């Protein structure tokens, strides 16, 4: 008999959008279950004698797919599978020299995510039976990366799914061995190449601009694969102790700058460590004024927006691990 502690989230990369992949999968330690079926109801109501309410034979339920998200800490192994279809372009893993360290690069582009996943949630019922719910055709629509003091590095990816079903058997869970999450003690945030010493939190949000309701008069409510239909936006916030006018002046003058947020883990093989890096070549602060108080040091929140510099990816993730494949 299973318990709530046996519930699992597995992810497989689909070779074709909407075709379930449950044989080659990886399991992720998701922190919540947010996937839900989306439906619409079409009813017909007109003049009819003795009508009491909507007739049962005039009420149809239409499945529109599903939506949900995966929130998990970023581990130093196994994360590449989730990252590969978020921003758009993926390269690697590429071996660093002759070491056991491999680097993968995930970069934004003009097309956005073109791949899809099957995400399966195994939910336990009150009899102790695990009930697998596969979500086919899962395409990333947005993400959040955040780091707070006293916490692990966290990532949430939002998905649109073509379908929710319960007819596919449970995939066998598979986890990376001896993996460890990145946390705030290994983080360094640099502005224009200079490491900062007064930042207390970092977050980056991406709206990938995907059209998720691509349905047609074609004999079915099944949607077509989401595609980019609007300009993506990447925004974030850095919180800090107020140390000088440097960042404030960047805000009021509209000065652009680069951001590098890096998390270092244990050494793999000299000179390479486990590492996750968010690279933003061009950004600008959109606020704000420092705030003082009588019970704390003066602080400043620095919301920022990412801009396209025209010569490189607007946002890139670099992931160094011992993973030889995504």
Describe this structure in words.
This protein has 326 residues and is mainly beta. The protein has one domain (4-32, 61-215, 222-321). It is 4% helix and 48% strand. The chain has two helices and 20 strands. The strands form two sheets. It has an 18-stranded antiparallel sheet that branches. The mean pLDDT is 97.
Say how many strands there are: 20
Assign an overall shape.
Answer: globular
What distance lies between the first and last C-alpha atoms, to the nearest angstrom?
33 Å
Helix/sheet category: mainly beta
Question: How would you state the average pLDDT, rounded?
Answer: 97
Q: How many domains would you count in the coordinates?
A: 1
Our Rg estimate from Cα atoms comes to 23 Å
Low-pLDDT ranges:
none
Strand share of the residues? Answer: over 45%
- Sketch the major β-sheet: 18 strands, antiparallel
Order of helices and strands: EEEEHEEEEEEEEEEEEHEEEE
Give the helix tally. Answer: 2
SSE blueprint and pairings:
Elements: E1 8-13, E2 26-28, E3 36-43, E4 59-73, H1 80-83, E5 88-95, E6 102-108, E7 117-124, E8 130-148, E9 154-161, E10 163-164, E11 187-191, E12 194-195, E13 199-207, E14 210-211, E15 227-228, E16 233-241, H2 246-253, E17 256-269, E18 272-285, E19 299-306, E20 316-321
Antiparallel strand pairs: 1-2, 1-7, 3-4, 4-9, 5-6, 6-20, 7-8, 8-9, 8-10, 8-13, 11-12, 11-17, 13-16, 14-15, 16-19, 17-18, 18-19, 18-20
